[in-house]
Amino acid sequence: MARQLAMEMPGIKVVEQSTATPQGYAKAAFYGVQAVPTVFINGKRAFVGAPPSIEALRQAVK
After folding, report:
1. CA-based nearest residue to 6, from 60, 59, 58
2. Which of 18, 27, 33, 55 is the most buried (most CB within 10 A)?
3. For residues 17 and 59, what is the distance between their CA atoms, to the nearest angstrom?
């Protein structure tokens, strides 16, 4: 969903971080991620678990 939104809205940057790597695990621990997926927007946790719809994600980005 995030990649689709990034294609629709110029200026949106999507970064996917795997928790299967030491670097990804460390970053998840730093941000307090306890479930995947967790979606952050502008450095703030927006969704724990997948967003319910692309429209919900679109509204959160605005």
Report:
1. 58
2. 33
3. 22
Query: Which residue, 60, 35, 61, is CA-closest to 49?
Result: 35
Instruction: Supply angle C-alpha 3, 35, 61, rounded to 5.
Output: 35
Q: What's the token pair of residue 46?
A: 């927006």
In DSSP terms, which residues pair with 38 in a beta bridge? 48
pLDDT of 29 reads 95
pLDDT of residue 62: 85
What is the identity of the amino acid at 44?
K
Compute the distance between CA of residue 32 and CA of residue 40 in angstroms, rounded to an integer: 11
**Where in the chain are the domains?**
2-61
